[in-house]
Specification:
Layout lengths: L2 H22 L4 H19 L7 E6 L26 H11 L2 E5 L2 H11 L3 E6 L1 H11 L4 E5 L14 H12 L1
Parallel strand pairs: 1-2, 1-3, 3-4
Amino acid sequence: MTNSFRRWIFFKAGMPLLYAFGLAARIDRERLQGLLININNRLVRKTWKGPVTRLLLMLPHCIQRSECKVRITFDVNNCERCGKCPVAEFIDVSERKNLKLSVATGGGIARRTVDKIRPDAVVAVACERDLISGIRDIYPVPALGILNERPFGPCFNTRVDVDTVIDAITFFAG
């Protein structure tokens, strides 16, 4: 069985079955979604061949500090690069690696961005729910999902390990 066929089986049969089984077994929804994201990431890392020409880094709007007066949603170039959140670091990485960077307020905008840019691959940062639905919705585009940390609750001043994101970018972009 080829690796790409395994990924297809995972998306078409494995993911729905694992999700249904997990919910029936009363496994915490976020934990179950995290498991599915990890399986996806492993499959993508096994099946990916070669560097990309169009890579998209998708960030959630909640990665920006709530105190910031300048909103970066829809245009990350509005960022003043104050250093209070990781957005400036990601802008620098996107410029160095020549990749597209987008900040989305939700799944609909994220999917529209993917449709518009038509990337070869995506590195996405979000919560479990948004990642798993986004990864599933953009299949067969390979996507590595990175969970954000939510020390103040959902969708508020979230964080992410910048090195983990850079590792995923390097995986795709070389």
